[in-house]
Amino acid sequence: MVRRTAEPYKIKSVETLAMLSYDERKEALIKAGYNTFLIDSADVYIDLLTDSGTTAMSDAQWGALMTGDEAYAGSKSWKKLEETVREVYGYRYVLPTHQGRGAENILSQLKIKDGDFIPGNMYFTTTRAHQEMNGAKFVDVIIDEAHDPNVNHPFKGNIDLTKLQKVIDDVGAENIPYVCLAVTVNLAGGQPVSMENMKDVYSLCKSNGIDVFLDATRCVENAYFIKEREDGFADKKIAAILKEMLSYSDGCTMSGKKDCLVNIGGFLAMNDEELYIRSRELVVVYEGMPSYGGMAGRDMEAMAIGIREAVDDHYIEHRIQQVRHLGDQLIDAGIPIVLPIGGHAVFLDARKFLPHLKQEDFPAQALAAALYLDSGVRSMERGIISAGRNIETGENNTPKLELVRLTIPRRVYTNNHMNVVVDSIIDLFNKRDEICGLQMDYEPPTLRFFNARFSPLSKSGKLISKENKTMN
């Protein structure tokens, strides 16, 4: 018999959740323009919109808030965070930022010139936006398996070395300031990169004089998959695997709001002293002093502790297993999801869930809206809306993956909450033909998924043609 395990923590404080009626949820959804980003959190029952900044901090972290040094310059809390990053991640230089996109902005401004190319293992929205705003073109060099939700590949985040070499040959190494390697790959379904692939990518780039910068936001989750799936790592500690991973890079951008287990903050890390000096000057312009970079001293204290808590083997095992608790039940019920189950979220395959809708009808956006209407569970579209428009043609980018992301915050919900999500999705799947598509009524010029507004395409104006108002 397989012994069941419980959460590696106990609950000290609770927050009451909103449990709106069907009519109240419908009103909230209409007010938000059918965009789950625009729904007030007070109207959400189970919030799976994102794992960014939604972590429940530990008692040690809450206690550390009282010891934060809020000095404008030379903060003791910064020294503690800097030392922790150097020790756990292994980089020589660290600069604090208010969150990950602050680090992306600085790296892009300093490394990119107009006309450059940035190869990467599938785009991420804010990362690509910063690269393009500074004149670069993103080139996807992820393995083909990553674009197929049905392929059960253990490391779908891997870079295809042949594709990468072709980009180098076509545009010239001098026009590639760095390769952007995400660990894990969010938009592929939270898919990891193997240690072997990281090593090979780093070797290829070094032989061509190209830097490798990681999007290390969920690097601990990636380390867990290496321990679980790659030969030679089963008996190693997560902390040791993580440090080896990061050694095959020249630096990273980090959103501390994920694997650093805090609600705000981030950093830019690197090994090159000259780049560090230049970056330090831009931190002053965009973020704040290099000894706080947009974070309060108390946040830096909490992040330093969170970095160490995140590499605890018991913590990360439970983290991954809770995601699987949700995903495995959906698989058993015949719900189409991205395989294999990723590290931070379960991704519904909206194309297969709603096959009667064309991609131009925004099936993932419609499914996310329908899920909220059905049960008050908030999720996120990751498809044609998130992909935005081609900067040259103005046409919609049409990714092969049209997904709804069910993102599980760290240490926040129990498995019973996941069971509620499963029940709602199964009910929706059983009446999927009744869900209509959406039209976009307002489109922001950049990162449109945050603020776009929609309305149902049905003649009745209903998202679900046969509403069941008896639902709670």
UniProtKB/TrEMBL annotation:
It is an enzyme of class 4 (lyase). Keywords: Lyase, Pyridoxal phosphate. CDD domains: Tnase_like. The modification N6-(pyridoxal phosphate)lysine is found at residue 258. It comes from the Bacteria. Residues 47-422 form the Aromatic amino acid beta-eliminating lyase/threonine aldolase domain. Its cofactor is pyridoxal 5'-phosphate. GO terms for biological process: tyrosine metabolic process. InterPro entries: ArAA_b-elim_lyase/Thr_aldolase, Beta-eliminating_lyase, PyrdxlP-dep_Trfase, PyrdxlP-dep_Trfase_major, PyrdxlP-dep_Trfase_small, Tryptophanase_CS, Tyr_phenol_ly. SUPFAM superfamilies: PLP-dependent transferases. Belongs to the beta-eliminating lyase family. This is Tyrosine phenol-lyase. It comes from Sporosarcina pasteurii (Bacillus pasteurii). The lineage of its organism: Bacteria, Bacillati, Bacillota, Bacilli, Bacillales. The gene is tpl_2.
